[in-house]
Structures are given as structure tokens and as C-alpha cells.
Amino acid sequence: xxxxxxxxxxxxxxxxxxxxxxxxxxxxxxxxxxxxxxxxxxxxxxxxxxxxxxxxxxxxxxxxxxxxxxxxxxxxxxxxxxxxxxxxxxxxxxxxxxxxxxxxxxxxxxxxxxxxxxxxxxxxxxxxxxxxxxxxxxxxxxxxxxxxxxxxxxxxxxxxxxxxxxxxxxxxxxxxxxxxxxxxxxxxxxxxxxxxxxxxxxxxxxxxxxxxxxxxxxxxxxxxxxxxxxxxxxxxxxxxxxxxxxxxxxxxxxxxxxxxxxxxxxxxxxxxxxxxxxxxxxxxxxxxxxxxxxxxxxxxxxxxxxxxxxxxxxxxxxxxxxxxxxxxxxxxxxxxxxxxxxxxxxxxxxxxxxxxxxxxxxxxxxxxx
Length: 369
Prior knowledge:
By secondary structure, this protein is of the alpha+beta class. Helices cover about 30% and strands about 25% of the residues. The chain has 11 helices and 17 strands.
């Protein structure tokens, strides 16, 4: 692990907060395989990941496979109507939290109790006053779509959490929000985006609430639809943008497609911005520049959180003398042959777990093989 000291200096202790203006993360944090592996251990292996909405698995036995930074896991509704999650490779259970609005969060920490509690990063995020104008029960899952690109996942997050570039890069955005009123609020693990809409925009269904959830997810909700996006890293310089789109029960085809198509154009434009940014990083053109304390408040908060989390985890590894992978678990000797998985409290037969899935048995079995 000594090579990683190059990314933090000689000390593994998080650096003191710099005076403004603050410099961005170094370019190496967007290209290094070693940094990517450290992020897998310190972030995706132990932090809460906003994954989907309960409407994605409406029936007992429904199950969906997800991935994040090389970790594959399943979200399912069991035969008792409970939403559960488990690691795909061995059916080892993952931690699940359903927030007040029905969003499903997964923590892959293999401990009986995850090191990080959901409320540590997200307490109150599901109680934003602006959510009162929406009834999440009135939406249903409509479709998914993906875009893969050659860029680090953090570039997408940096891009998403500021609108410095919106005026010139996204011609659709001025039609759905007033960019002059745009600002963000940051707190713990989330970044709330605000932009006032004119009365004519509200009449078209463009009163939109946007929140980014660290590390890699967000959702935009409006009267006619909401969509979730997840930035799923597949390598240090590659990522897949994954989208789930939900439709309001009263939305007309015209109103639903209008806003759905706008966001697809915006996300496609962001993809190419990120790809060209990554090219500059790969060639060494960019080292790290200064960020504007207000116009780039979102990226500042995102990057500071990245810096703090990975540096803290690296310090733990230095003290322990080895890498720490919270999502990994060690089965007792001989237990693999007994076809069981550990819950942290007791052991259950995999067959018992499969049976709990009822009509979803064949789907779960296929995933587990």
C-alpha cells in the first residue's frame, strides 16, 4: 500500500481544510487503478447506495440485478412482501433501508451492523419540504436506459453538481428552469439543487426537485415523471450511466414524453462533455485547478467528501497493515460445502432463502448459479 502514499503525501491523516479558493482533486484520482481500488474498498464496499425505488419490484418474487464498482447484488421482494438485497455470488444478505418516499438503499458491508448508519449521511433527506407537492405512490416504473462512456465516475458527479456549463451546453435547460436563480444546498451526503420555474414552465409540469445522493446517484422528480440515475464505475476510466424512469398515473403521453426526452438529451450532452474531460486528464493536460466557492459549490462538497472518506479509510489500512474490504465476508471452514450463507446472527440454508422468494424462485436461482 505504500504506493498510495503518493496520493496523500507523507501523512495518512486527512489534510486540514484549505483556505478558499480550493483546488480540485488531482488528475491522478480520475485515472489511477490504485485509487479506483481504494474507492471500491472505502466507498462502494461500505457506504449506503441509493439503488432503486420500491415500485421497481412491485410483486412478490420480483428481483433485479444491480452493480457498482465490481460489486454485483440483487434487490428483490420476497414471498412475505419484504424488499431485501443480497450479494449475487453467494446470496449473502446486504443491508436495506427504505426511506419515507419508497426509495431503496443498499449497503454491502458484510458486518451484522454496517459501520455507517443511513442517518449518518442522509438523515432528513427524505423529508425535504419541496417533496410535499408530490405523492410518490402515484408513480409507477416505466422503463430503463443506459449509456456507457470512457470517463471516471467522479467526472459525471462533478458535471452533474454544477450548472456553470448549462447555458452553453444544454439548450433545453433554460426552457425548464431559470438559470439565474440556480443554487445548491449541501449537507452530509446529499446536494439539493434549486432553480425557480416561471408560471408558464410550471404549467407544463416543469416544477422539478433535484437531489444528488453521495456517492453516485440522484433523482429528479416532477408532476409527470421522475427518473433516477446511477453512475456505476466499471474501471478507473470507464462508467455506465444507468437510468430508471417512473411515470405519474395521470401523465399524458405528450407531457410524459416531453420531459423524458428533454432529460435524455441533457444526459447525452453530459456524456460527451465527460468523455472529452477524461481525454484531457489521460493526456496529463490537467493537474488540478481552483474551484469557484459558489458556482461550483456542489463539486466542492462532492470532492471534499471523496477526499475525506478515502483518506480516512487509507489511514485505517495503514494502521492495520493490510487492505480492508468491508463487503467481503469469510465463511467458516466447510460451510461452503454445506450450501449455507451467513447472516451475521445465524446460518440459513440457501434453499430456505430461495423458497421465501415464492414465484421468483427461478429468477433467483439463475442469478445465484
